[in-house]
């Protein structure tokens, strides 16, 4: 009796099409009883997903409203003429919410996200279907921790950091499957972790125990709030420092995961090269063709050779004051004797990686 608007018809057809196509892969999807802002709730085994559906006849898709909460955007490309819909030619793209930032809005650029058996298995894992375990939901966490000038962190910078890794990072992360990495900033360090929420609860318990035993505290901002209490991989390792604006076919989370795996491998290799002398830790000594006598310098050298990235070489007045820079060169550029002689009281070279 009441007419249906063209927009309502298009949206409903798209939702039915998504339901039908998902059912081909064993995923049951249905609209919720009440309109809560989600178009469909999809389930396969123990994996549940809230789906938002957007339909178009063009070459680009649109996004839901910013305040919408959902797991997956189903972007549907309808093909037909007038009132005739060619269902077998219509295309469905399933995009995880966290993949959207920075992702191209052109269908031609996201063919890898098109609905297929592989994509369905990625979003609704087979192990959840088999009932082996519930799907693991990944969470990101950053722990920014002050390193005091106190035992066993009371020696030079190198010793402080290596001992922090040996006394804190190693026991906290031992036997965990989480992806993690760590970095040093003089008076504090960062430990960042990506894992399931359940595993992070276990890691957090170890962190609390280790911090109490070593007298460590979280770093706080001027307002007294713990730093980086909210942390997202895609904003950090998937951000502009690691992903160029021109790469529209890659999402921040995809690049972020690649960088995370590199840093995780580097961290494990670094830990594997540590030794404990009494109360302090150090790196194993490498004397085979390595002037710095450090295994970590050897694999950093290979990483540079692999990517041929520029390594800045900076001539500074002294190690303590790095702001007074004479000149900034790049690996392979000549640092002439004349330039050094012009500043005889600036004898120190520092290699920044």
Précis, in short:
This protein has 353 residues and is an alpha+beta fold. The protein has helices spanning 6-23, 117-123, 126-130, 157-173, 197-214, 233-236, 252-272, 295-307, 337-341; strands at residues 28-30, 40-44, 47-56, 72-77, 80-81, 84-85, 91-96, 138-146, 179-184, 188-196, 217-218, 274-277, 280-283, 312-316, 325-330, 348-351. It has 3 domains: 6-130, Trna Endonuclease, Chain: A, domain 1 (3-Layer(aba) Sandwich); 138-282, EIF_2_alpha (Alpha-Beta Plaits, 2-Layer Sandwich); 310-353, no CATH class.
Topology:
Blueprint: H1 6-23, E1 28-30, E2 40-44, E3 47-56, E4 72-77, E5 80-81, E6 84-85, E7 91-96, H2 117-123, H3 126-130, E8 138-146, H4 157-173, E9 179-184, E10 188-196, H5 197-214, E11 217-218, H6 233-236, H7 252-272, E12 274-277, E13 280-283, H8 295-307, E14 312-316, E15 325-330, H9 337-341, E16 348-351
Describe this structure in words.
With 353 residues, the chain is an alpha+beta fold. It is built from nine helices and 16 strands. It folds into three domains: 6-130, Trna Endonuclease, Chain: A, domain 1 (3-Layer(aba) Sandwich), CATH 3.40.1350; 138-282, EIF_2_alpha (Alpha-Beta Plaits, 2-Layer Sandwich), CATH 3.30.70.1130; 310-353, no CATH class. It has helices spanning 6-23, 117-123, 126-130, 157-173, 197-214, 233-236, 252-272, 295-307, 337-341; strands at 28-30, 40-44, 47-56, 72-77, 80-81, 84-85, 91-96, 138-146, 179-184, 188-196, 217-218, 274-277, 280-283, 312-316, 325-330, 348-351. A five-stranded mixed sheet has the order 1-2-3-4-7, with helices on one face. It has a four-stranded antiparallel sheet with strand order 9-10-8-11. Strand 5 (80-81) and strand 6 form a beta hairpin. The protein is elongated. Residues 129-136 and 320-353 have low confidence and may be disordered.
């Amino acid at each position: 009796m009441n007419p249906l608007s063209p927009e309502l018809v298009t949206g409903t057809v798209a939702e039915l099409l998504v339901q039908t196509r998902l059912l081909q892969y064993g995923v049951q999807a249905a609209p919720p009883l009440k309109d809560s802002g989600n178009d469909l709730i999809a389930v396969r085994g123990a994996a549940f997903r809230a789906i938002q559906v957007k339909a178009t006849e063009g070459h680009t898709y649109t996004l839901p409203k910013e305040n919408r909460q959902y797991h997956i955007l189903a972007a549907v490309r309808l093909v037909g003429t007038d009132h005739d819909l060619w269902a077998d030619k219509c295309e469905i793209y399933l995009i995880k919410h966290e993949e959207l930032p920075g992702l191209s809005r052109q269908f031609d650029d996201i063919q890898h996200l098109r609905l297929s058996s592989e994509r369905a298995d990625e979003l609704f894992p087979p192990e959840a279907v088999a009932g082996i375990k519930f799907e693991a939901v990944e969470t990101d966490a950053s722990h920014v921790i002050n390193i005091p000038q106190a035992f066993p962190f009371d020696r030079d910078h190198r010793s402080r950091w290596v001992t922090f890794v040996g006394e804190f990072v190693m026991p906290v992360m031992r036997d965990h499957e989480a992806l993690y990495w760590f970095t040093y900033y003089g008076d504090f360090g960062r430990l960042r972790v990506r894992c399931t929420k359940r595993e992070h609860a276990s890691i957090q318990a170890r962190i609390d125990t280790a911090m109490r035993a070593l007298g460590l505290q979280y770093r706080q901002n001027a307002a007294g709030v713990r730093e980086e209490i909210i942390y997202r991989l895609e904003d950090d390792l998937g951000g502009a420092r690691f992903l160029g604006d021109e790469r529209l076919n890659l999402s921040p989370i995809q690049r972020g995961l690649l960088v995370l795996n590199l840093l995780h491998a580097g961290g494990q290799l670094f830990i594997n090269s540590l030794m404990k002398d009494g109360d302090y830790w150090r790196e194993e000594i490498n004397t085979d063709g390595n002037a710095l006598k450090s295994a970590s310098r050897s694999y950093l050298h290979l990483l540079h050779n692999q990517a041929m990235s520029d390594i800045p070489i900076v001539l500074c007045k002294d190690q303590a004051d790095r702001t007074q820079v004479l000149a900034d060169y790049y690996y392979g550029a000549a640092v002439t004797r004349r330039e050094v002689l012009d500043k005889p009281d600036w004898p120190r070279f520092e290699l920044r990686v």
